[in-house]
Amino acid sequence: MEQSSPGLLLVVSGPSGVGKTSIVHEVVRRFRGEFSVSATTRAAGPGEVDGRDYHFIDQTRFQRMIDAHEFLEYAQVFGRSWYGTPRAPVLAALAAGRVIVLDIDVQGAEQVRASHPGMFGIFILPPSEEDLLVRLRARAREDEAAIERRLAESTHEIARARSDGTFDAFVVNDDLGRCIEKVCELLVSRLGAGAASTRH
């Protein structure tokens, strides 16, 4: 008889362009976990689907959710759009003994750590600042000024992550396959031997 694995709140953070999305979706697939879909006040980008990538809501509704304490964490990013993690789906997944994965920034991870000290935090690092700049340019989503601003924010975010004790592990994404394997190894170790059976 298979043992069910305990619920675990996994927080994955890292700078834009470092490959978090691919890593998170593979972790969810392997561990039969759930991806926590954030709410945001920004408009949907090309190819993004409401309810799958984000819950796209207006500022009024976002504020109502803040007032009702419906977010596990929330923050305004780059002084513009707001992002938040709805609390109810996370708590439901944990109660069901599942792995729930959050892809959020360092500020959000700090808030989650404060309210859920048992979370497991992994920060994904680029091989170098130069490599990150290349990745940001390759995405072709923003002009050069915006890319430079995002790079500066990323440098600050990495320094903050390294110094504040929020994260349990740092993994360099110099090869996506190797990075995914390392993240999964860390997760299996955290969950314990009983988690291995959930991967097959």
The biggest beta sheet is recorded as: 5 strands, parallel
How would you name the oligomeric state of the polypeptide chains in this document? single chain
The coarse overall form would be globular
Q: Tell me the helix content.
A: 40-55%
- Rounded to an integer in angstroms, the radius of gyration calculated over CA atoms is 17 Å
Overall average residue pLDDT: 88
Q: What is the succession of H and E elements?
A: EHEEEHEEHEHEHHEH
CATH architecture label: 3-Layer(aba) Sandwich
* Structural class estimated from helices and strands: alpha/beta
β-strand amount: 15-25%
Q: CATH homologous superfamily - what is it?
A: P-loop containing nucleotide triphosphate hydrolases
The CA-CA distance between the termini, in Å, is 14 Å
Strand neighbour order, sheet with most strands: 2-7-1-8-9
Strand count: 9
Give the number of helices: 7
Poorly predicted tracts of residues? 193-200
What's the number of domains? 1
